[in-house]
Amino acid sequence: MPNHVHMILVIPEACGRMISSPTNKGSVLTAVGQMKRHVSKAIGKPIWQKSFHDHIIRNREDYEQIAKYIYENPIRWQYDCFYTEDNMP
């Protein structure tokens, strides 16, 4: 999408145990914060909104629904309130 990003973050396991609890929002905040800093530094300015919507994927069905939504999201760009012919990709 030209005006936002969707992503699935995977918190890796270490020795068969989670590094942090999957419900520990701090680990997600840290990962997103590091990504935002890296991208902002690479392009020379911050471009990120101050918050984000997160969802913990707990099973395969949930993953498949979210992956489908992300994959199909660009199709809905023309219905977005920020869409104009001028900002077509």
Protein described:
- By secondary structure, the chain is mainly alpha-helical.
- The protein has one domain.
- It is built from two helices and two strands, in the order ββαα.
- A two-stranded antiparallel sheet has the order 1-2.
- Strand 1 and strand 2 form a beta hairpin.
Proportion of strand residues: under 5%
What is the helical fraction, as a range of percent?
Answer: 25-40%
User: Gap between N and C termini, in Å?
Assistant: 8 Å
What shape does the CA trace take?
flat
Q: State the major sheet.
A: 2 strands, antiparallel
Give keywords.
mainly alpha, two-stranded antiparallel sheet, 36% helix
Topology:
Elements: E1 13-14, E2 17-18, H1 25-43, H2 60-72
Antiparallel strand pairs: 1-2
Characterize this entry briefly.
This protein has helices at 25-43, 60-72, and strands at residues 13-14, 17-18. With 89 residues, the protein is mainly α. The termini are close together.
